[in-house]
Design a protein that fits this description.
single chain; 209 residues; alpha+beta; Immunoglobulin-like; five-stranded mixed sheet; binds copper (II) ion
Length: 209
């Protein structure tokens, strides 16, 4: 019996040593939490703007496979009217909801959604455990825009605005994955209203080897 126990202990010890040797486990206490790649995602009607850790705008969220990523989701409605509208104007360059690019109907529909309080998004990434619900409604307190909050994205980030939510995860597969607004109501309308189903950034989450 004692032999069996000793043998088991020896096996455990051997496995542990090999894991240390292989670098799978670390005996050094983890210093500052393992650094993750940071990106900011501004979700607007109906799209996303991506920024790196220094708040430089990027076409895509570019990360490395097996390395942790932290995304901070900032709803554009957390920013003042002018900034919020500026983001929404980007949608004017798209063909959306049967309307051609720069059709003024697009702007009208966006403003309608603001007025109706269809201001939340649920940001997801295809094939990844990302499902972040924005929560800007309480900060808007019934208004379509927020004027007393941070004036810029940088200010919002620096002040850790309560509208900002984060998610940390480790991508395991190389590829380009869609960033999308996940939730859809019974009628397919979703939380952000009219343009919800077009709120997709195709292949914008890029995982590199
Ligand atoms: Cu949305």
């Amino acid at each position: 019996m004692a032999t069996v126990v000793a043998l088991a202990a020896l096996t455990v010890a051997t496995v542990a040593v090999s894991l240390v040797f292989l670098g799978r486990i670390s005996l050094v206490p983890e210093g500052p939490r393992e650094a993750s790649t940071v990106f900011y995602v501004v979700a607007y009607h109906y799209g996303y703007a991506f920024y790196d850790a220094d708040l430089n705008e990027r076409e895509t969220i570019d990360v490395k496979v097996g390395e942790p990523v932290t995304l901070y989701i900032v709803p554009s409605q957390a920013l003042p009217r002018a900034v919020s509208l500026e983001y929404a104007e980007r949608t004017m360059t798209l063909a959306i909801g049967g309307l051609a690019p720069s059709d003024p109907g697009i702007r009208k529909k966006v403003l309608e959604d603001f007025a109706l309080g269809n201001v939340e998004h649920i940001v997801g990434i295809a094939s990844h455990p990302v499902y972040v619900t924005t929560s800007v409604t309480p900060l808007l307190a019934g208004a379509p825009f927020r004027e007393q909050g941070p004036r810029t994205l940088r200010e919002a980030v620096e002040q850790k605005d309560p509208s900002i939510k984060s998610v940390t995860f480790t991508p395991k597969r190389v590829g380009a994955f869609d960033v999308l607004c996940v939730d859809s109501g019974m009628d397919g309308g979703g939380t952000c209203g009219w343009g919800h189903k077009w709120m997709v950034a195709k292949g914008a989450f890029v995982v590199r080897p």
